[in-house]
Amino acid sequence: MSPKLPRLCAAIIAASLSLAAFADPLSPVGAWVTIDDETKKPKSIVRIVEKNDVYSGTVEKIMDPAKQDSKCDECPPDDARKGKPVIGMTILSGLKKDGDNVYGGGQILDPNNGKTYNAKVTVIDGGKKLEMRGSFLFIGRTQTWLRSE
């Protein structure tokens, strides 16, 4: 066996692992800065993860220092998130790939009012932005989130 063969194998394995470390830029997986609808300022950071082809998002950070201890006081009494801290709370759940750069079929919680909406996200602008659509029947709103990392 050639002495170069083990080095070549090691290089191929290292390159493969390096490529795997790069996330798909058109995937919603990663950290996203949410923008306040009224002030247009950064509101929070939500981290979206994937497990078994289902995507969910958890609040990692609240930008306003005065709201660090926010709790979901408005959540319905039968929701396990009622009265729990917003930081660390899963607010986005059940999303599944629904086309090119589109993920739907999930739900999103607005911890400010305790209401849950149908959720659909679309990764746009080459993966730099995410359109988050929350709706109930035909009424809803769309926010643009910015990739944090």
Count of the separate structural domains: 1
Which word captures the global form? globular
Name the strands of the widest sheet in spatial order. Answer: 1-2-3-4-5-6-7-8
Counting H and I runs of at least 4 residues, what is the number of helices? 1
CATH topology: Lipocalin
Write down the overall mean pLDDT.
87
Number of strands: 8
Q: Kindly name the structural category.
A: mainly beta
Précis, in short:
By secondary structure, this protein is mainly β. Helices cover 12% and strands 46% of the residues.
Question: Describe it for me?
Answer:
- The chain has 149 residues and is mainly β.
- The protein has a single domain (24-147), classed as Lipocalin, CATH 2.40.128.520.
- 12% of the residues lie in helices and 46% in strands.
- The chain has one helix at 4-21; strands spanning 30-35, 42-51, 54-62, 90-97, 102-110, 115-124, 129-136, 139-147.
- The chain has an 8-stranded antiparallel beta barrel with strand order 1-2-3-4-5-6-7-8.
- A hairpin with a 4-residue loop joins strand 6 and strand 7.
- The protein is globular.
Blueprint (SSEs and pairs):
Elements: H1 4-21, E1 30-35, E2 42-51, E3 54-62, E4 90-97, E5 102-110, E6 115-124, E7 129-136, E8 139-147
Provide key terms for this protein.
single chain, 149 residues, mainly beta, 8-stranded antiparallel barrel
